[in-house]
Amino acid sequence: MSVYILGVESSCDDTSAAVIEGTEILSNVIASQKVHAEYGGVVPELASRAHQQNIIPVVDTALKRAKIHKKQISAIAYTNGPGLLGSLLVGSSFAKAMAYSLDIPLIEVDHLQAHVLANFLDKSGEHKAKPEFPFLCLTVSGGHTLLLKVNDYFDMEILGRTIDDAAGEAFDKAAKILNLPYPGGPVIDRLAQQGDPRKFDFSIAHLPELDYSFSGLKTSFLYFVRDRLKENPDFIQDNLADLAASIQYAIIRSLTDKVKKALQQYDCKDLVIAGGVSANSGLRGAMQQLADRYHRILHVPTIDLTTDNAAMIAVCGYFKYMKGEFSNIHAAPYSAAKNRLQA
Fold first, then answer.
1. Which of 24, 134, 230, 301 is packed most tightly, with the most Cβ within 10 A?
2. What strand order describes the sheet that includes 106-110?
3. Beta-strand (E) ranges in 176-310?
């Protein structure tokens, strides 16, 4: 008998719903919020209001594209955290109400675990190779930067984490300094492909073990650009591609230096990247070089599965469903990362 999981994702500014059969995606609908662009970042109150407007049509569209009736759904999986509390409350309240009305299991999902498990999704007619446990995973997004040793679907050991800002935040901050539109990470990636990554040298933090830090890099980039603008008001425009390439190179070097150390310390055959920043072409290329150098197999999600989406929530819910791990309507959303991942 087929297992159909409806996934609901509302952790930040994208409202998403997806239906999967087993690990195969039948639909994955995302409604993005354009309103935040003029503010240069996500405004939590506006995000939660937009989720309220989007959640019903997005779920309805996901069911129609999957060509199944709501009564065929085996369980509903939803993001319970981490994320913006107002946004999470919209998705979790909807998921709880729908599961209760259909009398089917409810499954709470940790957003960070879901990013990792996105690598286990299949698209119709495609069945790519899956990572084998244990594997190393670099999870990078706007809010989180983690280096994990993944022993099983829900046994993820934190080897390193950022002590301050996330890599994705560093990309967005650099883009803002360069007066680029929000979200800035993809724009920097496109510009960097036309620039010289070694034109400007930005030092990276050298922390012990496998932890990360990006606040110093952001500050040094800000001061560097500010000082050059005093000398030449057109400095940014004259050097835009080189500035984008140089800051991207510094961020990627910081990320991959720790991955290299982990590859030397842990005997894992497979290497995985996940999260929104895993869409960055420079990071993908650098990680492939590392995988080749250390004779590992690199697994990366397709671009549409790197950012926040409900298919990754659904597949995490599927693996929990198969283990009989269900939630109840009293589960409270959480804004910060909890001990779902083990340090």
1. 301
2. 106-110, 75-81, 4-9, 14-21, 24-32, 122-123
3. 270-274, 297-299
Query: Taken in order 146, 150, 153, 158, is the CA torsion positive or negative?
Result: negative
**Cβ partners under 8 Å of residue 234, min gap 6:** none
Domain with CATH 3.30.420.40 in the chain: 4-121+305-323, 135-300
Measured CA to CA, the distance from residue 68 to residue 71 in angstroms comes to 8
Convert 277-305 to b/e letters by CB count within 10 Å (16 or more is b).
Answer: bbbbebbbebbeebbeeeebebbbbeeeb
CATH T-level fold of 135-300: Nucleotidyltransferase; domain 5 (3.30.420)
Of 120, 113, 209, residue with least CA distance to 156: 113
Q: What one-character DSSP code corresponds to residue 212?
A: B
Q: Is the dihedral of CA 175, 176, 178, 183 positive or negative?
A: positive
Q: How far apart, in Å, are the Cα atoms of 255 and each of 66, 83, 190?
A: 38, 23, 19
Is residue 339's pLDDT more than 80?
no
Reported as a single tens digit per residue, the pLDDT across 57-99 is: 999 999 999 999 999 999 999 999 999 999 999 999 999 999 9
pLDDT at 193 over 90: yes
What DSSP string runs through 229-260? HHH-TTHHHHTHHHHHHHHHHHHHHHHHHHHH
Q: Please, what is the Cα angle at 308 between 306 and 312, to 5 degrees?
A: 75
- Which of 215, 277, 202 has its CA nearest to residue 247? 202
Residue at 34: amino acid letter = K
Q: Are strands 4-9 and 14-21 parallel, antiparallel or unpaired?
A: antiparallel
pTM for the whole thing?
A: 0.94
Per DSSP, the three-state class of 46 is: helix
Q: In the sheet that 155-161 helps form, which strands lie side by side, from edge to edge?
A: 155-161, 145-152, 135-140, 270-274, 297-299
| pLDDT band, residue 302 (cuts 50/70/90) | very high
| pLDDT at residue 156, as a whole number | 97
Instruction: Please state which architecture CATH assigns to domain 4-121+305-323.
Output: 2-Layer Sandwich (3.30)
Determine what percent of the chain is predicted with pLDDT higher than 70: 95
